[in-house]
Structure prediction request, 232 residues.
Amino acid sequence: MAQSIQPPVPSHGKGQREAILAEAAALFARHGYHGTAMSDLAEACGLSKATLYHHYRDKSEVLTHIADGHVSRLVELCESVEGDPAVAPDERLAVLVERFLAEYSEAQNSHRVLTEDVRFLPPPDRKRILDKERRVVQSFANAVATLRPDLAKKKLTKPLAMLLFGMVNWMFTWLRPTGPLTHASVTPLVLNLFFDGVRNMPAPAPVPAPRLVRVQRPAPAAPKRATRARTA
Prediction:
């Protein structure tokens, strides 16, 4: 039996659709996408399957709405920081990290679904969501470039942004809601670790171009002539 772990689902309207998605994200995060059936979702929501299918065509559409909704909010966060005149350019990366971790703390189920289950979507939906994720990564890469323009010339800002996401995107695997640490208490640790590393990292020396070595191939052997047997 699928037990609800979210607030009660409203009886109708837009609030009902959003509550279904919140319940689905919690079930997907707990049992996995393939481990959750639409019947489980209907039961957890306290709805009939007919009502559930009235809102969402199938489980794939539910997953699409969860992932797309979460990544769209992350894009909006990037755009709000980039367009905020109160945020100095050299402070942009720190503000992005702080706001992202705050968002992650409020949307842990949706974030886990986005991180783990997008691969199960049909290619067109997966591509749309991945394009938005690339927009987010580029925003962080641009902020890194503001701090270290020399690294931008070496085309290292995007790899550094990916390393940062590797640090924060998987916090849900070890940061427990009942543990001594929270997203808010971990935020300064992330900032100190990453910023100290970026500020003190020497620009890598240029990699020398590989030296071409001409290989001398042996000349082909002359073909042997066929000899006729001599007759007396």
